[in-house]
Amino acid sequence: MDLILTLVSGIAWTVVYVEAIRVGLRDRTYAMPVAALALNFAWETTYAVRDISVGISPQGVVNVVWAVADVVIVYTYLRFGRAELPEFVTRPLFAGWSVLVFGTGFAVQWLFLAHFGVHDATRYSAFLQNLLMSGLFIAFYVSRQGPLGQSLTIAVAKWLGTLAPTLLFGVVEDAPFILGLGILCSVFDLAYIGLLLRPRLTRLRSLPAPSR
User: Transmembrane region positions (predicted)?
Assistant: First the structure.
């Protein structure tokens, strides 16, 4: 069961990252909120390096794949992100802001690691930043006034990719804190899926009824 849920999470989040790269390049934007991207990039880089140094494991392989995919998503942010900011944000300001955001992402991960140790830090930081991402995706939709740089594939895969470790750590390993965070993630993820589905449902309702 542990291996199955780990693989489901790994595959689902890999779909999120591949689709985020595709959509970002297609729409000439970035497809993951930058604060969540910074935390994710720092988490996956930190634990991919640690896992490689310790030995090969299923989660370690997954972390390496995610870290490589994150590099490309970071590229889309650096390539297209400034265009979505006000004109007074010059290239030096954008560069400085980006360094601050991504540097903070690494600092937060390392503080979790120093305070909680590997076992708890990996879980607590992952679920907290996951909840942040869930909320920021909704803010993404609102700020962009639609699904630019977003897709239903990302939304559904993100939900499933979070649900699997919620069941693994929250239910199988009986961790109420993780279970609570995972449930909150699902609430936000399902709300986001609903936002992306709404235009499709509206179009379906507007279609003329078939004649008899």
Answer: 30-49, 61-80, 92-112, 124-142, 177-197
Distant-in-sequence, close-in-space partners of 195: CB < 8 Å, separation ≥ 6 = 138, 141
Q: CA-CA distance, 163 to 169, in Å (whole number)? A: 10
Q: Rounded to the nearest 10 degrees, how much is the dihedral formed by the CA atoms of 137, 1, 54, 132?
A: 20
Rg (CA), the chain: 18
CA distances from 111 to 66, 105, 177 (A): 21, 10, 19
Query: pLDDT (tens digit, 0 to 9) for every residue of the chain, 212 residues total?
Result: 788 998 899 899 999 999 999 999 999 999 999 999 999 999 999 998 887 887 777 777 888 888 999 999 999 999 999 998 888 899 999 999 999 999 999 999 999 999 999 999 999 999 999 999 999 999 999 999 999 999 999 999 999 999 999 999 999 999 999 999 999 999 999 999 999 998 766 665 666 656 55
Question: Which residue in the block uniquely carries the two structure tokens 């935390």?
Answer: 39
Judged by DSSP in three states, 117 sits in helix
Which residue blocks in 28-90 are alpha helix, DSSP H?
A: 34-54, 58-80
Q: Where are the domains of the chain?
A: 2-206
